[in-house]
Amino acid sequence: MKHPSETQLALLAGGDLAGYRERWRVARHVAQCGDCQAEMNSLRDASEQVRGLAAELPKDLNWNRLAGEMTGNIRVGLAAGEAIARFDKPAARRLRLGWNAALVLTCATAVFLVAFWISLPQPQAEHLMAAFKRIRTERIGSFVRTPAPPQDEVVLEATSSSIEVKENGRTMSLTHPHSDGATVSVSLQGSAGVRYVDADTGQVTTNKVYYAEP
Amino acid sequence: MPSRSICGVLALAGLCAGAAHAAAVLKIDLPKDSPVVVLSADPGDSSETARGGAMLLDLHAMLSLRNSTQRRIRGVTLVVTAQDVTPGGKGSVSIASDVGPEETFPVRVDLRLLRPLQGSANVPVSIGLDGVLFEDLSFYGPDKLSSRRTMTLAEFEARRDRKYFKSLLAEGGPERLRQEIVESMARQADRPSLDVQVVRGGRATNLEAEKQVQFAFLKLPDSPVEPTEGVARIAGNEVRAPRLEVKNRSDRAIRYLEMGWILRDHSGGEFLAGSVPAELNLAPGQKSPILESTTLKFPQRGSSTLAIEGMTGFISSVEYADGTVWIPSRTDLGSVELQRVIGPSGEEQRLVQIYRKKGIRALVAELNKF
Asked: Domain range holding B85?
């Protein structure tokens, strides 16, 4: 005995199977076949559940409009997916190239800056640092309110030819004639001095420079 | 009656060198009741030139001052400032000389200013008076640079040394005096000297490991202050943050002292590095710490770098609360350790120069003036 198809059983369960002869033949088989009867009962239960759910929907629901909106949403989603797919691949290639170029440029800049800084004479380096510090402290508004960490800085220098006080790359020196008898001294409280006998005047002369803590 | 107030503005305009053109202004401003007055101010061969990205002002001014009082002057200190260049710094020029009433005396000011090209063309350099010390040790002036103490100590050293040389003259005549002067010249020629930098901040920048080194102390028998302990941190050619403790062993209160600081390098050479001054209030028998956060740095000279191995301290001057001072005696300074590193006093240098230029007779005549 040939079993009816699942479609035929579903149409019979919903009362939609067309043709009297066809409907009689399938119904007769279902009455004699336990398997097909169980399958049709299952289909009838599902159909009853769908009817129950449909009863909960608003009465004035426009099924045509809902179907149209769903179709439209699906089309928009498909179109967007295609557009992203076309856009993503070349963009990824451009991003990798950009990062590589930036990396090379950063390395080159770092090498240049290190070489520049190393080759810069110390006074110019100090002057540059002082200029940066002035820019930072004079032109960046509220940022300057955060006090900069204290940095080591040569503020006084005593040599056999002069004594100097330095400040922000600027220097004030008191010079003295080269003399074997010049006595150079520094004081840890912020002064440097030299004492010598002036060959012209015969006077004992003491030059000093002082640095006042801000 | 000459005016005691001079506010001279000397424009050193048109001091051109090469392509650079600039002008500097030297402003001399003494108080109205100043015991010295300015007679003239000669700018000499002062110049202002461009050096790379900076302007260099070389000022070689010779001032002529007159003692307008009826007392003998022993010292004058002028304060030199250039606010546009170093607002936090200043300089001073002190003259130790014996100037009688109404006598004139010169003061040389050799100043060099280095500043960026931008900014004002004129750099006002101001010269004022910080103090005048008279023969009776009285003082006039604002004393903002503690020039009273400095000049008083110098005057005490001068009196000590003149007394010493006069005693040699009295004992052994001109030949004994000549012998001592020649020995002094030899010591001055042999005395080592170092370039020194004072670094603010206190962080050791040397690559070598930092170590803490104890001070050794030279005990001067007559010193009213005894250093009891001290340490400093050393890294290669840098020495920083000395911490000392001193005890007043006199029966008078002390308000200021200065400790000389001798460094020893790895080869055994010794150098006078500087001094550690301290303003304090030290009652008799009391101990007090002296702390400094400054770093001293000794730049490399040629191919050799100073490697500091040890330190020695000694009390070089003391000021009591009543304003009188103590300085080491000639006997103290005659010790082997001090004699090879301590420079002679200014007065001893002056007497040596008189001998060099004019001979023993002129030196004897100079000593007999006092």
From this structure: 7-145
